[in-house]
Structures are given as structure tokens and as C-alpha cells.
Amino acid sequence: MTGNNSDIQKKLIDGRLIASEIELSISEKIVELKNKGIVPSIAVILVGENPASVVYVRNKERAAQRCGILSKKDIYPESLTEKELLNKIEELNNDPLIHGILVQLPLPSHIDEKKIMEAINPAKDVDGFHPLNVGKIFTENASFYPCTPYGILKMLDYYDIPVKGKNCVIIGQSNIVGKPLAVMLMNRLATVSSLNIFTKDVKSIAAGADILISATGKAHLIDENYVKDGAVVIDVGISNIGGKLCGDVNFERVINKVSKITPVPGGVGPLTVAVLMENTVKSALIKSGIKNKRNKK
Ligand code: NAD
Fold first, then answer.
1. Structural domains of the chain in order of their starting residue, each with its CATH number
2. 270 dihedral zone (left: phi>0; alpha: psi -120 to 50; beta)
3. Model-level pTM?
4. 3-state DSSP assignment of residue 15
5. Labelling 83: which of 32, 169, 208, 287 has CA 20 to 30 A away?
6. Is-catalytic flag, 104?
7. Mutation test of ligand 1: which of 238, 246, 272, 275 has the most ligand atoms closer than 8 Å to its C-beta?
8. Å from CA of 216 to ligand 1 middle
9. Active site residue: 124, 125, 127, 228, which one?
């Protein structure tokens, strides 16, 4: 890596800092709710023991504790049936003390994820994956926006990185990151390219991006040849290489070219969790009547 440490620091998008500011702002709203006798609460369902999922659930639980959100964790064995999970969701849908329901993905292959997402009450869908909320991204009036894409927009806003008219290239088109993010950037009048594993010449398309977002899960896929001078690079990927977390981006090889970049860890991940907390508090605020559904921010 070339460039001195302070040059690198200036280029970093500090996800932990932004997340802590979001947590602070929602803590104030939580006090307001608690004064009305309402404790925002989230139910987190984990099926099986996928090691990455166990870590994600733990991070969400810790964030909830920090903010003063009640977090109720339900852990089930891999053998849980789809019907049993649907029954559990129905119970949580009807529980007036639960404001947010999160089913940690991926689910075991015998459970249909789409069916599960559709079963969650859209008013408690704090992950923003219910088709109703997904559809409402188009019209910009979803109750909850998916946490990772919304967190990325918050990062860009925090550093005053303009989006309108910019070439935004998103590598990866999952339902939880790439696709909703593409629409959310289009809503802000960016010129968006969505790339996937079958895209021809990913490298040259990526190299035209003003803002390059990579969400593939392919460790160190992105090197200097994928990055235009002065580009903003958002690394969503999380891989575990020899016990060490790394992203899609080969940080050391791109740092001299980028104007801004997210580190892994400490970039997109903390924002995803903070937005989940924010969505949970928003759900409680809407239910309490303090906040109107359409009042998004
Ligand atoms: P996914 O795993 O469902 O799909 C990967 C996508 O990348 C697909 O669209 C695939 O076609 C594309 N892809 C894979 N290799 C490619 C290549 N060489 N060139 C072009 N496209 C390629 O996607 P996901 O669930 O969005 O997860 C992606 C990564 O992001 C994973 O590492 C995941 O752990 C991470 N993730 C991180 C956060 C966070 O908060 N930081 C949140 C969600 C996902």
C-alpha cells in the first residue's frame, strides 16, 4: 500500500461513526416512546447454525441493547418445518408488544424464503423484504427500506457525495442489496448499471463508475483495474479468509485511485445494523401514533 496513513484516513467512509450517530438519534426517540410506556422491540428468528448468521444475529442483539430496544431472540434447529416457522411468524404478527420481525437469511433449503417474507406483517417488516415494501421502493413510500441499500444511501449523504447524474455501477443483483439499491439510486436520478455473474466485461463497466458498489461475496474481486481514478467505492461483500473478514475489494490495490472507500469491517456492516434499529423504532413510533407512516425520515 502506498500513501501515508492520514491520506488513507481521509478517504475512509467511517461506517461505525455514522452508525453511532444513528444510534444516538434513535436513543432520543426511544426515550420519547418509553415516556409513553412503549418499549420498542424486535423479534429475531434464527433457524439453524450458519456461522455467519450467528454472528449477524449477535451483532443485531448487541446494537439493540446499546439503543434500549428490547430484542427477543428465537433460535430453532435446522429441522424446523416451514409450517412451524409460519406459525411462529403469525404469533409475532399478532403480538402487540413486538414492533419488528426479522428472519435471518439464508433459511434451510426446505423452507421457502419467499413464503416466509410474505408471511411477515408489512407493518413489522423492519428488514424491508416483504413484497409490499419492496414494491413501494418504486414509489418511494415504503414503510421500511431494506437496511443495507438504505445504509449505503445514508453513507453517501453523510459525506455529501452527489448521486444525481452519476454513473453508479452495482456488481451483484440480490434481492436484499443489488436490486433494491439500483431502484433507490434511480429514484435519485443516478445512471445505474446492474451487473451479475453473467455480465460481459464487468471490469470495463466497473471502470466507468463514478460510484462503484460491489456486493458479490467474492473476496478481493475488485482491484485497481475495476476502478476509475477518483471513484467512490462501496464494498458490501463480507468473506472470511483464514478467520479474517475481508470484502469484495482489494483495498490495498485500489486505495490510491479512490476518492472515498468503505473498509471491511467497519463500513457497510454497521450501517446495516443501525438502519435495522432505526426501522424498529420507526415501527414503534408509527404504532404509537407519534410518527406518520409517510413521514419517512
Ligand atoms: P448473493 O450472494 O445473493 O448474490 C451475489 C451476486 O453477485 C449475484 O447477483 C451474482 O450474480 C453476483 N456475482 C457474483 N460473482 C460475480 C462476479 N464475479 N461478477 C459479477 N457479478 C458477480 O448476494 P448478497 O446476498 O447481496 O451478498 C453479497 C455479499 O454481500 C456477501 O458477501 C454478503 O455476505 C454481503 N452482505 C453484506 C451485508 C452488509 O451489511 N455488509 C449485507 C448483505 C450482504
1. 37-123 (3.40.50.10860), 147-269 (3.40.50.720)
2. alpha
3. 0.96
4. helix
5. 287
6. yes
7. 238
8. 3
9. 127
Q: Which of 181, 200, 233, 236 to mutate to test the pocket of ligand 1 (most atoms within 8 A of CB)?
A: 236
6 C-alpha vs ligand 1 centroid, how far in Å? 31
| Ligand 1 atom, smallest distance to 105 CA | 25
Residue type, 189: L
Catalytic status, residue 210: no
Q: Which residues contact 76 (CB under 8 A, 6 or more apart)?
A: 45, 46, 47, 48, 84, 85, 88
Q: Which of 183, 157, 158 is nearest to 170 (CA)?
A: 183
From 29, 60, 166, 260, the catalytic residue: 60
CB 121 within 8 A of CB 86: no
pLDDT in tens, the chain (297 residues): 556 888 999 999 999 999 999 999 999 999 999 999 999 999 999 999 999 999 999 999 999 999 999 999 999 999 999 999 999 999 999 999 999 999 999 999 999 999 999 999 999 999 999 999 999 999 999 989 999 999 999 999 999 999 999 999 999 999 999 999 999 999 999 999 999 999 999 999 999 999 999 999 999 999 999 999 999 999 999 999 998 999 999 999 999 999 999 999 999 999 999 999 999 999 999 999 887 555 444
Residue indicated by cell numbers 416451514: 82
Q: Which amino acid is at 30?
A: I
Mutate to test the pocket of ligand 1, among 177, 214, 220 (most ligand atoms within 8 A of CB): 177
Distances 171 to 79, 116, 193, 196 between C-alpha atoms, Å: 34, 27, 8, 6
Q: C-alpha grid cell for residue 286?
A: 408509527
Residue recorded with cell 443489488:
178
